[in-house]
Automatic annotation (TrEMBL):
SUPFAM superfamilies from the UniProt entry: Periplasmic binding protein-like II, Winged helix' DNA-binding domain
Protein name according to UniProt: HTH-type transcriptional regulator TtuA
Source organism: Rhizobium tropici
Domain HTH lysR-type: 1-50
Alphabetical keyword list: DNA-binding, Transcription, Transcription regulation
Amino acid sequence: MAAVTEAGNFARAAEMLGLTPSGVSRAIGRLEARVGVRLFDRNPRQVSLTEEGRRFHSQVIPLLSGLEEAAAEVSGTASAVRGRLRVSVDPWFARTVLASELQQFLARHPQLSLDLSTSNYREEMMSGIDVAVRFGPPDTSSFIVRKLLETRVMTVAAPSYLKRHGEPRSPHDLAHHEALLFRDPQSGLPFPWEFQRRGESMELKISSRLMLDDPSVAISACVAGQGIFQSLSIGLAPFLARGELVPILSDWSDEHYPLYAYHPSRHLPPAKVRAFLAFVEEVARGAM
């Protein structure tokens, strides 16, 4: 079941397991008959978990991981960083902080292979994944949660934009400016813009003709002078150093936003998970 969930169809799951697609399909059929519910929606191109399948999967994966850990402990390899590590990382953190450091991590652990995907969706983050890294308030699920950092929220614009439109002196001035909004992947609505200083907080509903769901695209649009953007400060240093972006409303930039790591609830996570968490904390501190 875990292989089919990760692969997205029976053919790729069969390749991973060294079986035939029909053999995988029959195994899933037997499992569905055993539990008495349909676990997967099927179409000719892919399969996906049903609502019942997602609940079943979330409960079964920690148990399977526990069996793997028990086998590793018996064989004396519980402390060895080896095997395949599957991680799901926020796209902005992966591109601006983590990607350039991955070779260092793999060099430290030559018996480990890394399968990294990027996503900022919460509902899919532990589907066949050992570790997930996400910005935002912690998920109140059964996962083990570790806070990695807090990054400041900055409001930025390109010099070319400010030359054409002038610089806002207070958050209320933004009503007369072009803004670039970022869509909350959970709600589908734009993130509200919040401004904080010395204990005072102000949340504004900003109107805009351009809303995006990829922070890299939003930064590129901001650099091109298309509008003002409110962004996490982590990852912005190169743009600020090159003068492509400049901070505005700096006296209203006390807001911070957290980054968390998640892994399935268990007494002792595998050595490969512990090694990755320690590494992410290390590179996150260096990026601040």
